[in-house]
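Changelog entry

Holo records now carry the ligand SMILES as an explicit input line rather than a separate metadata file. Below, a converted record for zinc ion, shown in the new format.
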Amino acid sequence: MFWTNTSLLTILFVQGFTMADSKLHSKFSSLFLLPLGIFLYIFSNQPLFSDESKLNAKQNKILKETFAYLETLEPKRIKIDKTTYNRHSQFESFFKFSFSGKKLSRWIQSRSKKYTFGSTGDYVAMYQDGEILLGRGFFNLNRLDRVLVLLHEARHADGKNYSHVVCPDDFPYLNTRDWKIHPAGKKGCDSVPDGGYGITASFLFELGAYGFLSQSDAAYRYNSEISRVIRD
Ligand SMILES: [Zn+2]
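Structure line, unchanged by the conversion:
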């Protein structure tokens, strides 16, 4: 299913290779199909080396489970003292609604209607032209990290105001997922408080405040996201 691609060229190439591999088909059919694929490519608007594809059934299931998990996060009672909550809670000022996993799920889905699978380099996901491109790494994350990724990427749908800025050369913080990825000098920081990193931090704070995460889990994750919010 991985190869079920919207690109006709890719489908034809795959057919060509499948046939070349199969003893039941002659070399002639693959030799015929490859030039036909190239010919058809000229009349399609897919980028030549794009490896984007629709999500397969397993990936779709993981994505659905991610939203289903988010929608279970409905607040009941604040588990921390009200003064601390009021001091740090920014969720409502960012989202214009009080904390609710269901509303947040709708917020994400109203910004990104299309999800594709493809290579994303050092990233687990990317936002481009109204769609979220999910890399292989996304599907290996736990459900909370997947929610953070979707929330972050959905913010990019709100335009250039939320584009990243270059992290300072002396940026001292570690990437929590992979220490080989160094944010210093890369476009992985925000100069606005409510960009992709600020909103994920505000979400994590609520998870800690309402007891969905322990204070230490919430704090370490919150600190990690907020570390990317810098002042110019
Ligand atoms: Zn981003």
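Spot-checked after migration. The domain at 53-226 is CATH 3.40.390 (Collagenase (Catalytic Domain)). Strands lie at 53-54, 114-117, 125-128, 131-134.
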